[in-house]
Amino acid sequence: MRKLIFAFTAILGMTVEAQNITDAVRYSSSDLNGTARYRAMSGAFGALGGDLSSLNINPAGSAVFLSSTATFTLNFENTENQVSFKDGFNSTSNGNFDLGQGGAVFVFNNNSENADWRKFALAFNYNKTATFEDDFRAMGRNTRSIDQYFLSYAQGIALDYLVPMQGESLAELYSYLGETRGLGFGAQQAFLGLQGGVIEVNNPNDIPESDPAYYDLNSYSSALSPGTYDQTYFYSATGLNGKFSFNFASQYRDFLYLGLNLNTHFLNYDRVTSLDEGNLNATNEFVYFEDRLSTLGSGFSFQLGAIARAGENLRIGAAFESPTWYTISEETTQFIESDIAVVNPNVVNIYPDYKLQTPTKYSGSLAYLFGANALLSFDYSYKDFSSTQFKPKDDPSFITQNEIISNELKGASVYRIGGEYRILGWSLRGGYRFEESPYRNETTVGDLTGYSAGLGYNFGNIKIDLAYNAYERDLNPQLYQTGLTDRMSIAKSNSDFLLSLSFGL
Q: Are residues 34 and 236 in contact, defined by beta-carbon separation less than 8 angstroms?
């Protein structure tokens, strides 16, 4: 019977993949990362150059270096999340120490006095693009249960798919659902809800289980008692998005710098989410649902940039960054336990590789130099997040997700301003930045405001720089993308301490 029903189900297009708009935003976004000098000025370096992390914005910046230099940066990051959910409140914090940047630039001067091209530079740089290290806990009392999550996937799936055949184990059936075209992720969620005792099939005509028609039933309802549910949602993630850049830049006469970056990207993201629910109106009724995701990806992008001198004191920069074309692989495992049953398939779902194309980025910059002792710099950049795309675009589930992305995301601008004042061998720095939300509703992910400060000392061939960087952003994520879509309110604050060491080569 199962194969006959499958033909009907496949026509209905029941395939549901794990990828969604949240993943698209996560892998398309970048943090402010780089050298201590760069971050002390909030990354406003597009028209300045002369810093390895300035290549993140404008690849022409390597030609501004006067001599070959290497820089390495250590970063300590602390994140605090204040989470409100229903009537509950919780606060968590975690710290992370890593290598945020490392690279070198090699400057080759043209000794010919009449040459138009005065020098060229080659640079190699690693920069952490984004960190995924985060954890929080949301606790509160809810009138909606986790049963809504499983019901949203179960409706329309014939019962025949969700109960084992004779001699078939739960693990084998869970695996079969994940491997079968037209079923996949959604059918697995329905299976977990049914076998975990959270939902049950509707049988309005009291068809006995001995009748084959019983297994054609495809309507479900909650198996839980009505009431108020004490819920604890836990999220924990590790990983990062990193970029290796090969850079070439050149100086034309005394007024123009041109540059090119070829970038390779890598990402790893490991996440655990769980929901622990107890019914306050039913003794000993509980549900615990856990989902684990492991993601690996690699990608490519390129950047073009220019810096022009407009007189003695004014610098103008412009840059273009192509989309990043990622190839991503994902694996998931799931587990559910209730007062009725424990379902632990111990099966790793390995999804087919998919592609993600992130938005194009455009940047413009201005910098004004007050002699040799002070400067003020401003950067503006723009990315249209609604152009993010999952591929292949003709995949039914990706068609749906790309439509959601197009409708719910928008173009977002970033404004950065930074300044530096030099006195003897010391440099004092500060900066401010504002990043618009990529969401049209501006609440799922809110606007970001940040500030920074730092100082450095030049010993001659060695420079040491310190920086402090902080930002705040409000988030309102859903518990789940479908069914139990209640939102949490998260006030996120982040602070970083950085140490960079630069030396001549």
A: no
Q: Provide φ and ψ at 148, rounded to 5°.
A: -65, -35
- Whether the Cβ atoms of residue 162 and residue 169 lie closer than 8 Å to each other: no
Residue 428 CA neighbour count, 13 Å, CB half: 5
Helix (H, G, I), strand (E, B) or coil at 10: helix
Tokens encoding 145: 């249960």
Q: What is the pLDDT of residues 433-486, one digit of tens each?
A: 999 999 999 999 999 999 999 999 999 999 999 999 999 999 999 999 999 999
Candidates 201, 197, 189; CA nearest to 158 is 201
Q: Which H helix or E strand runs over 174?
A: helix 170-179
Paired residues of 137 in beta bridges: 234
Q: Please list, in sequence order, all residues whose beta carbon lies within 8 angstroms of the beta carbon of residue 137, skipping any fewer than 6 positions away.
A: 83, 90, 92, 232, 233, 234, 235
Give me the residue label for tokens 């150059």: 49
Which two three-digit tokens encode residue 393?
């675009």
Cβ atoms of 269 and 293 within 8 Å: the answer is: yes
- Alpha-carbon distance of 464 to 456, in angstroms, equals 6
Question: Of 3.40.50.300, 3.30.1440.10, 3.40.50.2000, 2.40.160.60, which CATH number belongs to 2-504?
Answer: 2.40.160.60
Select from 135, 137, 150, 93 the least CA-distant residue to 276. 137
> Which residues touch 291 (CB under 8 Å, ≥6 apart)?
272, 273, 274, 332, 333, 334
pLDDT in tens, 458-473: 999 999 999 999 999 9
d(CA 114, CA 356): 48
Type of residue at 147: D
Residue 196: which pLDDT band, with cuts at 50, 70 and 90?
Answer: very high
Per-domain boundaries in the chain: 2-504
Cβ burial of 126 (10 Å; 0-12, 13-18, 19+) is middle
